[in-house]
Amino acid sequence: MKSYRKELWFTTKTRRAFLNITPTIEECLKESAIQEGLLLCNAMHITSSVFINDDEAGLHRDFERFLEKLAPEKPYDQYDHNGYEDNADAHLKRTIMGREVVVAVTEGKLDFGPWEQIFYGEFDGMRSKRVLVKIVGE
Amino acid sequence: MKSYRKELWFTTKTRRAFLNITPTIEECLKESAIQEGLLLCNAMHITSSVFINDDEAGLHRDFERFLEKLAPEKPYDQYDHNGYEDNADAHLKRTIMGREVVVAVTEGKLDFGPWEQIFYGEFDGMRSKRVLVKIVGE
Amino acid sequence: MKSYRKELWFTTKTRRAFLNITPTIEECLKESAIQEGLLLCNAMHITSSVFINDDEAGLHRDFERFLEKLAPEKPYDQYDHNGYEDNADAHLKRTIMGREVVVAVTEGKLDFGPWEQIFYGEFDGMRSKRVLVKIVGE
Protein backbone atom coordinates (compact mmCIF):
# COMPACT_ATOMS: atom_id res chain seq x y z
CA MET A 1 0.00 0.00 0.00
CA LYS A 2 1.23 3.46 -0.95
CA SER A 3 0.17 6.66 0.72
CA TYR A 4 0.58 10.28 -0.34
CA ARG A 5 -0.01 13.52 1.59
CA LYS A 6 -0.01 17.16 0.59
CA GLU A 7 -1.20 20.41 2.13
CA LEU A 8 -2.61 23.09 -0.14
CA TRP A 9 -2.68 26.70 1.07
CA PHE A 10 -5.28 29.31 0.13
CA THR A 11 -5.81 32.97 0.94
CA THR A 12 -8.99 34.37 -0.58
CA LYS A 13 -9.46 38.12 -1.14
CA THR A 14 -13.05 38.02 0.09
CA ARG A 15 -14.75 36.59 3.19
CA ARG A 16 -16.51 34.00 1.04
CA ALA A 17 -15.29 32.37 -2.16
CA PHE A 18 -15.48 29.16 -4.18
CA LEU A 19 -12.24 27.99 -5.85
CA ASN A 20 -12.09 25.16 -8.36
CA ILE A 21 -9.15 23.08 -7.11
CA THR A 22 -9.61 20.11 -9.47
CA PRO A 23 -6.43 20.75 -11.52
CA THR A 24 -4.33 20.93 -8.33
CA ILE A 25 -5.84 17.68 -7.02
CA GLU A 26 -5.10 16.02 -10.38
CA GLU A 27 -1.46 17.10 -10.06
CA CYS A 28 -1.31 15.59 -6.57
CA LEU A 29 -2.69 12.32 -7.92
CA LYS A 30 -0.11 12.25 -10.72
CA GLU A 31 2.68 13.00 -8.22
CA SER A 32 1.47 10.14 -5.98
CA ALA A 33 1.72 7.63 -8.85
CA ILE A 34 -1.21 5.79 -7.24
CA GLN A 35 -3.31 3.92 -9.83
CA GLU A 36 -6.08 2.35 -7.70
CA GLY A 37 -7.37 3.57 -4.37
CA LEU A 38 -9.19 6.36 -2.56
CA LEU A 39 -8.42 10.07 -2.42
CA LEU A 40 -9.53 12.13 0.59
CA CYS A 41 -9.59 15.91 0.28
CA ASN A 42 -10.68 17.88 3.35
CA ALA A 43 -10.62 21.39 4.74
CA MET A 44 -8.23 21.52 7.71
CA HIS A 45 -10.15 24.51 9.11
CA ILE A 46 -13.65 24.40 10.52
CA THR A 47 -14.97 27.46 8.66
CA SER A 48 -14.29 26.14 5.17
CA SER A 49 -15.40 23.24 2.98
CA VAL A 50 -14.34 20.92 0.24
CA PHE A 51 -17.24 19.84 -1.97
CA ILE A 52 -18.07 18.59 -5.46
CA ASN A 53 -20.45 20.41 -7.74
CA ASP A 54 -20.67 22.37 -11.00
CA ASP A 55 -18.22 25.06 -12.14
CA GLU A 56 -20.92 27.56 -13.09
CA ALA A 57 -20.91 31.15 -11.84
CA GLY A 58 -24.71 31.44 -11.67
CA LEU A 59 -24.92 28.36 -9.47
CA HIS A 60 -22.23 29.77 -7.17
CA ARG A 61 -24.32 32.92 -6.68
CA ASP A 62 -27.29 30.63 -5.91
CA PHE A 63 -25.16 28.80 -3.31
CA GLU A 64 -24.21 32.14 -1.73
CA ARG A 65 -27.87 33.22 -1.41
CA PHE A 66 -28.95 29.76 -0.21
CA LEU A 67 -26.30 29.74 2.53
CA GLU A 68 -27.04 33.32 3.57
CA LYS A 69 -30.72 32.39 3.91
CA LEU A 70 -30.00 29.32 6.08
CA ALA A 71 -27.15 30.82 8.16
CA PRO A 72 -26.93 34.60 7.67
CA GLU A 73 -23.64 36.33 8.49
CA LYS A 74 -25.33 39.30 10.19
CA PRO A 75 -26.38 40.48 12.68
CA TYR A 76 -23.30 39.05 14.39
CA ASP A 77 -24.95 39.08 17.82
CA GLN A 78 -27.57 36.49 16.81
CA TYR A 79 -24.90 33.83 17.49
CA ASP A 80 -23.53 32.81 20.89
CA HIS A 81 -20.20 31.89 19.27
CA ASN A 82 -19.59 35.50 18.23
CA GLY A 83 -18.07 38.17 20.45
CA TYR A 84 -14.33 37.71 20.29
CA GLU A 85 -14.98 36.19 16.84
CA ASP A 86 -17.59 37.01 14.16
CA ASN A 87 -17.57 33.78 12.16
CA ALA A 88 -20.32 31.59 13.66
CA ASP A 89 -22.15 31.72 10.32
CA ALA A 90 -19.03 30.31 8.62
CA HIS A 91 -19.11 27.24 10.91
CA LEU A 92 -22.75 26.65 9.96
CA LYS A 93 -22.25 27.27 6.24
CA ARG A 94 -19.34 24.84 6.16
CA THR A 95 -21.55 22.23 7.83
CA ILE A 96 -24.11 22.48 5.02
CA MET A 97 -21.46 22.31 2.28
CA GLY A 98 -19.41 19.56 3.96
CA ARG A 99 -15.85 19.17 5.26
CA GLU A 100 -14.52 16.59 2.85
CA VAL A 101 -14.87 14.54 -0.30
CA VAL A 102 -13.72 10.99 -0.93
CA VAL A 103 -13.03 10.25 -4.59
CA ALA A 104 -12.30 6.92 -6.26
CA VAL A 105 -8.95 6.63 -8.03
CA THR A 106 -9.14 4.35 -11.10
CA GLU A 107 -6.31 3.78 -13.58
CA GLY A 108 -4.45 6.75 -12.10
CA LYS A 109 -7.31 9.23 -12.59
CA LEU A 110 -10.06 10.86 -10.50
CA ASP A 111 -13.03 8.60 -11.28
CA PHE A 112 -15.53 11.37 -12.02
CA GLY A 113 -18.86 11.79 -13.75
CA PRO A 114 -19.12 14.31 -16.60
CA TRP A 115 -19.52 17.51 -14.55
CA GLU A 116 -17.90 16.73 -11.20
CA GLN A 117 -15.39 19.35 -10.08
CA ILE A 118 -13.80 19.77 -6.63
CA PHE A 119 -14.20 23.13 -4.91
CA TYR A 120 -12.65 24.80 -1.93
CA GLY A 121 -15.45 26.71 -0.20
CA GLU A 122 -14.20 29.57 1.94
CA PHE A 123 -16.61 31.16 4.45
CA ASP A 124 -14.17 33.13 6.63
CA GLY A 125 -11.32 34.07 4.35
CA MET A 126 -8.75 36.83 3.87
CA ARG A 127 -6.24 34.71 5.81
CA SER A 128 -4.06 31.73 5.00
CA LYS A 129 -5.89 28.40 5.35
CA ARG A 130 -5.17 24.79 4.45
CA VAL A 131 -6.66 21.82 2.62
CA LEU A 132 -5.33 18.28 3.06
CA VAL A 133 -4.98 15.77 0.22
CA LYS A 134 -4.39 12.17 1.28
CA ILE A 135 -4.27 9.33 -1.23
CA VAL A 136 -4.14 5.68 -0.25
CA GLY A 137 -3.82 2.77 -2.69
CA GLU A 138 -1.28 1.23 -5.00
CA MET B 1 -4.67 -4.59 -1.89
CA LYS B 2 -7.66 -5.39 -4.08
CA SER B 3 -9.89 -2.85 -5.73
CA TYR B 4 -13.30 -3.16 -7.34
CA ARG B 5 -15.30 -0.72 -9.47
CA LYS B 6 -18.83 -0.74 -10.82
CA GLU B 7 -21.19 1.81 -12.34
CA LEU B 8 -24.89 1.55 -11.57
CA TRP B 9 -27.39 3.22 -13.92
CA PHE B 10 -30.75 4.67 -12.89
CA THR B 11 -33.61 6.33 -14.77
CA THR B 12 -36.37 7.51 -12.44
CA LYS B 13 -39.90 8.13 -13.72
CA THR B 14 -40.26 11.32 -11.68
CA ARG B 15 -38.09 14.42 -11.21
CA ARG B 16 -37.42 13.42 -7.60
CA ALA B 17 -37.18 9.93 -6.13
CA PHE B 18 -35.46 7.90 -3.42
CA LEU B 19 -34.34 4.38 -4.37
CA ASN B 20 -33.08 1.83 -1.85
CA ILE B 21 -29.92 0.50 -3.52
CA THR B 22 -28.64 -1.57 -0.57
CA PRO B 23 -29.25 -4.99 -2.20
CA THR B 24 -27.33 -3.91 -5.33
CA ILE B 25 -24.41 -2.62 -3.23
CA GLU B 26 -24.37 -5.91 -1.32
CA GLU B 27 -24.11 -7.79 -4.63
CA CYS B 28 -21.17 -5.57 -5.66
CA LEU B 29 -19.44 -6.35 -2.38
CA LYS B 30 -19.95 -10.09 -2.85
CA GLU B 31 -18.66 -9.85 -6.43
CA SER B 32 -15.54 -7.99 -5.20
CA ALA B 33 -14.68 -10.78 -2.73
CA ILE B 34 -13.21 -8.08 -0.48
CA GLN B 35 -13.42 -9.04 3.20
CA GLU B 36 -11.90 -6.01 4.98
CA GLY B 37 -11.75 -2.45 3.70
CA LEU B 38 -13.77 0.61 2.73
CA LEU B 39 -16.61 0.97 0.24
CA LEU B 40 -17.27 4.31 -1.44
CA CYS B 41 -20.61 4.87 -3.14
CA ASN B 42 -21.15 8.24 -4.82
CA ALA B 43 -23.45 9.94 -7.28
CA MET B 44 -21.51 10.66 -10.50
CA HIS B 45 -23.92 13.51 -11.28
CA ILE B 46 -24.17 16.77 -9.39
CA THR B 47 -27.96 16.84 -9.09
CA SER B 48 -28.27 13.54 -7.23
CA SER B 49 -27.15 12.04 -3.93
CA VAL B 50 -26.16 8.85 -2.22
CA PHE B 51 -27.08 8.83 1.47
CA ILE B 52 -27.88 6.50 4.36
CA ASN B 53 -31.14 6.68 6.26
CA ASP B 54 -34.33 4.78 6.99
CA ASP B 55 -36.45 2.89 4.43
CA GLU B 56 -39.75 4.39 5.58
CA ALA B 57 -42.18 6.04 3.15
CA GLY B 58 -43.41 8.65 5.67
CA LEU B 59 -39.87 9.80 6.31
CA HIS B 60 -39.24 10.08 2.57
CA ARG B 61 -42.25 12.40 2.25
CA ASP B 62 -40.80 14.42 5.17
CA PHE B 63 -37.46 14.64 3.32
CA GLU B 64 -39.28 15.88 0.19
CA ARG B 65 -41.07 18.65 2.14
CA PHE B 66 -37.91 19.55 4.07
CA LEU B 67 -35.87 19.90 0.86
CA GLU B 68 -38.63 21.86 -0.90
CA LYS B 69 -38.71 24.28 2.05
CA LEU B 70 -34.93 24.83 2.03
CA ALA B 71 -34.42 24.87 -1.74
CA PRO B 72 -37.76 25.11 -3.59
CA GLU B 73 -37.93 23.98 -7.22
CA LYS B 74 -40.13 26.90 -8.31
CA PRO B 75 -40.27 29.69 -9.34
CA TYR B 76 -37.41 28.71 -11.65
CA ASP B 77 -36.30 32.33 -12.13
CA GLN B 78 -35.32 32.72 -8.46
CA TYR B 79 -32.02 31.00 -9.36
CA ASP B 80 -29.20 32.47 -11.47
CA HIS B 81 -28.26 28.96 -12.63
CA ASN B 82 -31.60 28.51 -14.38
CA GLY B 83 -32.41 29.75 -17.88
CA TYR B 84 -31.05 27.17 -20.27
CA GLU B 85 -31.53 24.68 -17.39
CA ASP B 86 -34.20 24.50 -14.64
CA ASN B 87 -32.39 22.35 -12.08
CA ALA B 88 -30.64 24.79 -9.70
CA ASP B 89 -32.79 23.48 -6.85
CA ALA B 90 -31.52 19.95 -7.56
CA HIS B 91 -27.90 21.09 -7.07
CA LEU B 92 -28.86 22.59 -3.70
CA LYS B 93 -30.96 19.61 -2.58
CA ARG B 94 -28.13 17.22 -3.43
CA THR B 95 -25.79 19.36 -1.34
CA ILE B 96 -28.00 18.94 1.74
CA MET B 97 -28.39 15.18 1.22
CA GLY B 98 -24.71 14.58 0.34
CA ARG B 99 -22.81 13.21 -2.65
CA GLU B 100 -21.38 10.04 -1.17
CA VAL B 101 -21.19 7.52 1.63
CA VAL B 102 -18.18 5.62 2.88
CA VAL B 103 -19.06 2.29 4.51
CA ALA B 104 -16.81 -0.08 6.46
CA VAL B 105 -16.46 -3.59 5.06
CA THR B 106 -16.01 -6.19 7.80
CA GLU B 107 -15.88 -9.97 7.24
CA GLY B 108 -17.17 -9.47 3.69
CA LYS B 109 -20.29 -7.51 4.75
CA LEU B 110 -21.46 -3.88 4.90
CA ASP B 111 -20.76 -3.03 8.55
CA PHE B 112 -24.12 -1.44 9.31
CA GLY B 113 -26.22 -0.53 12.32
CA PRO B 114 -29.73 -2.00 12.62
CA TRP B 115 -31.57 0.44 10.32
CA GLU B 116 -28.93 1.73 7.94
CA GLN B 117 -29.90 1.50 4.26
CA ILE B 118 -28.21 3.16 1.26
CA PHE B 119 -30.37 5.36 -0.96
CA TYR B 120 -29.95 6.92 -4.35
CA GLY B 121 -31.55 10.38 -4.12
CA GLU B 122 -32.62 11.75 -7.48
CA PHE B 123 -33.48 15.46 -7.74
CA ASP B 124 -33.46 15.93 -11.53
CA GLY B 125 -34.48 12.61 -12.95
CA MET B 126 -36.32 11.16 -15.94
CA ARG B 127 -32.95 10.60 -17.65
CA SER B 128 -30.21 8.01 -17.33
CA LYS B 129 -27.75 8.78 -14.51
CA ARG B 130 -24.92 6.93 -12.79
CA VAL B 131 -23.68 5.92 -9.34
CA LEU B 132 -20.13 4.71 -8.72
CA VAL B 133 -19.23 1.87 -6.35
CA LYS B 134 -15.54 1.58 -5.49
CA ILE B 135 -14.28 -0.93 -2.93
CA VAL B 136 -10.71 -1.02 -1.65
CA GLY B 137 -9.31 -3.61 0.75
CA GLU B 138 -8.35 -7.25 0.78
CA MET C 1 -2.97 -3.97 4.67
CA LYS C 2 -4.14 -3.85 8.28
CA SER C 3 -7.68 -3.16 9.40
CA TYR C 4 -9.12 -2.24 12.77
CA ARG C 5 -12.73 -2.09 14.00
CA LYS C 6 -14.31 -0.85 17.18
CA GLU C 7 -17.82 0.01 18.33
CA LEU C 8 -18.30 2.88 20.77
CA TRP C 9 -21.47 3.05 22.84
CA PHE C 10 -23.17 6.23 24.06
CA THR C 11 -26.23 6.99 26.16
CA THR C 12 -26.91 10.71 26.45
CA LYS C 13 -29.01 12.14 29.28
CA THR C 14 -30.85 14.53 26.97
CA ARG C 15 -32.65 14.10 23.64
CA ARG C 16 -29.96 16.16 21.92
CA ALA C 17 -26.26 16.41 22.80
CA PHE C 18 -22.83 16.95 21.30
CA LEU C 19 -19.98 14.82 22.71
CA ASN C 20 -16.33 15.39 21.86
CA ILE C 21 -15.10 11.87 21.07
CA THR C 22 -11.63 12.85 19.77
CA PRO C 23 -9.68 11.34 22.71
CA THR C 24 -11.49 8.00 22.28
CA ILE C 25 -10.80 7.97 18.54
CA GLU C 26 -7.12 8.72 19.24
CA GLU C 27 -7.01 5.70 21.59
CA CYS C 28 -8.52 3.52 18.85
CA LEU C 29 -5.86 4.72 16.42
CA LYS C 30 -3.09 3.94 18.90
CA GLU C 31 -4.58 0.49 19.56
CA SER C 32 -4.70 -0.20 15.79
CA ALA C 33 -0.97 0.55 15.40
CA ILE C 34 -1.79 1.83 11.89
CA GLN C 35 0.66 4.52 10.76
CA GLU C 36 -0.64 5.48 7.29
CA GLY C 37 -4.19 5.14 6.02
CA LEU C 38 -7.77 6.30 6.39
CA LEU C 39 -10.01 6.32 9.45
CA LEU C 40 -13.78 6.16 9.04
CA CYS C 41 -15.98 7.12 11.97
CA ASN C 42 -19.75 6.88 11.49
CA ALA C 43 -22.96 6.83 13.46
CA MET C 44 -24.51 3.36 13.25
CA HIS C 45 -27.95 4.85 13.92
CA ILE C 46 -29.88 7.08 11.55
CA THR C 47 -30.86 9.73 14.09
CA SER C 48 -27.31 10.65 15.11
CA SER C 49 -24.22 12.12 13.47
CA VAL C 50 -20.47 12.13 13.54
CA PHE C 51 -19.00 15.46 12.44
CA ILE C 52 -15.93 17.66 12.80
CA ASN C 53 -16.11 21.18 14.16
CA ASP C 54 -15.06 23.38 17.07
CA ASP C 55 -15.27 22.43 20.76
CA GLU C 56 -16.93 25.67 21.83
CA ALA C 57 -20.11 25.74 23.93
CA GLY C 58 -21.46 28.92 22.30
CA LEU C 59 -21.16 27.38 18.85
CA HIS C 60 -22.95 24.25 20.05
CA ARG C 61 -25.89 26.38 21.19
CA ASP C 62 -25.83 28.03 17.75
CA PHE C 63 -25.94 24.57 16.11
CA GLU C 64 -28.93 23.65 18.30
CA ARG C 65 -30.87 26.79 17.26
CA PHE C 66 -29.84 26.41 13.62
CA LEU C 67 -31.06 22.79 13.51
CA GLU C 68 -34.29 23.60 15.34
CA LYS C 69 -34.98 26.34 12.77
CA LEU C 70 -34.38 24.04 9.78
CA ALA C 71 -36.03 20.91 11.23
CA PRO C 72 -38.01 21.69 14.38
CA GLU C 73 -38.80 18.87 16.80
CA LYS C 74 -42.38 20.04 17.42
CA PRO C 75 -45.23 19.91 16.61
CA TYR C 76 -44.69 16.18 16.16
CA ASP C 77 -47.63 15.83 13.78
CA GLN C 78 -46.00 18.02 11.12
CA TYR C 79 -44.04 14.91 10.06
CA ASP C 80 -45.46 11.84 8.28
CA HIS C 81 -42.78 9.67 9.92
CA ASN C 82 -44.15 10.41 13.39
CA GLY C 83 -47.02 8.55 15.03
CA TYR C 84 -45.56 5.39 16.49
CA GLU C 85 -42.28 7.35 16.72
CA ASP C 86 -41.61 11.06 17.41
CA ASN C 87 -38.12 11.40 15.94
CA ALA C 88 -38.58 12.54 12.34
CA ASP C 89 -36.76 15.80 13.19
CA ALA C 90 -33.76 13.75 14.37
CA HIS C 91 -33.49 12.04 10.96
CA LEU C 92 -33.47 15.47 9.28
CA LYS C 93 -31.02 17.03 11.76
CA ARG C 94 -28.61 14.13 11.33
CA THR C 95 -28.79 14.63 7.56
CA ILE C 96 -27.63 18.25 7.90
CA MET C 97 -24.81 17.37 10.31
CA GLY C 98 -23.69 14.26 8.40
CA ARG C 99 -23.39 10.54 9.13
CA GLU C 100 -19.64 10.12 8.98
CA VAL C 101 -16.18 11.59 8.79
CA VAL C 102 -13.13 10.22 6.98
CA VAL C 103 -9.85 11.32 8.50
CA ALA C 104 -6.32 10.89 7.15
CA VAL C 105 -3.91 8.90 9.33
CA THR C 106 -0.33 10.16 9.00
CA GLU C 107 2.61 8.91 11.07
CA GLY C 108 0.19 7.19 13.45
CA LYS C 109 -1.84 10.33 14.20
CA LEU C 110 -5.15 11.91 13.14
CA ASP C 111 -3.98 14.36 10.47
CA PHE C 112 -5.89 17.38 11.72
CA GLY C 113 -5.85 21.14 11.35
CA PRO C 114 -5.47 23.29 14.48
CA TRP C 115 -9.11 23.23 15.68
CA GLU C 116 -10.56 20.04 14.25
CA GLN C 117 -12.34 17.88 16.81
CA ILE C 118 -14.64 14.89 16.22
CA PHE C 119 -18.12 15.03 17.73
CA TYR C 120 -20.88 12.57 18.26
CA GLY C 121 -24.12 14.43 17.56
CA GLU C 122 -27.14 12.88 19.25
CA PHE C 123 -30.64 13.96 18.13
CA ASP C 124 -32.77 11.22 19.69
CA GLY C 125 -30.92 10.15 22.79
CA MET C 126 -31.59 8.78 26.26
CA ARG C 127 -30.97 5.26 24.93
CA SER C 128 -27.88 3.25 24.09
CA LYS C 129 -26.53 3.95 20.59
CA ARG C 130 -23.38 3.08 18.66
CA VAL C 131 -20.59 4.66 16.64
CA LEU C 132 -18.28 2.61 14.40
CA VAL C 133 -14.56 3.24 14.04
CA LYS C 134 -12.87 1.49 11.11
CA ILE C 135 -9.23 2.09 10.25
CA VAL C 136 -7.57 0.75 7.12
CA GLY C 137 -3.89 1.15 6.26
CA GLU C 138 -0.52 -0.16 7.38
From TrEMBL, chains A, B, C:
It holds the Pfam family YjbQ. Transmembrane segments: none annotated. NCBIfam families: TIGR00149_YjbQ. This is YjbQ family protein. The lineage of its organism: Bacteria, Bacillati, Bacillota, Clostridia, Eubacteriales. The gene is yjbQ.
